[in-house]
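Let's practice the habit of predicting before peeking. Look at the sequence and jot down your guess about where helices and strands might fall. Then scroll down.
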Amino acid sequence: MRILVIQGPNLNMLGKRKREIYGDKTLEEVDSLVKKEGAALNAEVVSFQSNSEGALIDFIQEEASSADGIIINPGALTHYGLSLRDALSDTRLPVVEVHLSNIYAREEWRARSVIAPIARGQISGLGWRGYISAIQILANELKEGN
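Done guessing? Here is the structure:
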């Protein structure tokens, strides 16, 4: 099983940016933890981060045909990334949306996700552990054929 883990704008700054909101772990540390959990679940994890919506879409279009599911933290594209939403939807793969912070407990505009309606589910506010939960849930659902 192959799962894409996609990180949107500014997530390359994890560990440096607003630690009180996004935590102390770097993107590399989060990726390592997710890949370790994926390996324990017999899932290959392919990680990608970009600050550009176009690069995220290119990655999805290039990799989706050989993937079984997608975990995505779209960053600010959560709220307006309609072309990203279309690319995710076009894959017809199960998508789990992850946010480090609780987007519903922050500014009002953060509570609207254009990705959520096409996602299998959303995990918000659990920090880096949200990615671990996402890969566990997605891998188990894929194994069960859901």
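How did you do? The mean pLDDT is 94.
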